[in-house]
Design brief:
103 residues, alpha+beta, two-stranded antiparallel sheet, 2 strands, elongated
């Protein structure tokens, strides 16, 4: 699981960078938690905590990966491509205008 491995690497790097006992304790707890978690949801929760509480330690690097931004998609048909482990999956997505906004 690449995401879990990445979280472990980030936590190990942060363990060296943090200074206060409170920060060290928080990282230590997250390190223990990530060892036992295997679901995408629980690992994403750990990622959110890291992003929220330890961004100052990124030192200008893209330490935690890019965050999702809200984008507006206009009505129409879109081609989507999902790449997972070297395989590509293609599909179509139809977006309609919001009927509540048309009133």
């Amino acid at each position: 699981m690449k995401f879990k491995e990445r979280l472990i690497r980030i936590l190990n790097e942060l363990a060296v960078l943090v200074k206060t006992d409170e920060e060290k304790d928080a990282i230590s707890k997250l390190q223990e938690t990530v060892k036992t978690e295997n679901t995408q949801r629980s690992l994403s929760s750990i990622h959110r905590r890291l992003t929220r509480n330890f961004t100052a330690f990124s030192q200008g690097r893209d330490f935690f990966g890019s965050s999702l931004q809200q984008l507006e998609a206009f009505a129409g048909e879109y081609k989507i491509i999902l790449n997972v482990d070297g395989k590509s999956y293609t599909g179509k997505l139809n977006i309609r205008n919001d009927p509540l906004l048309d009133k």
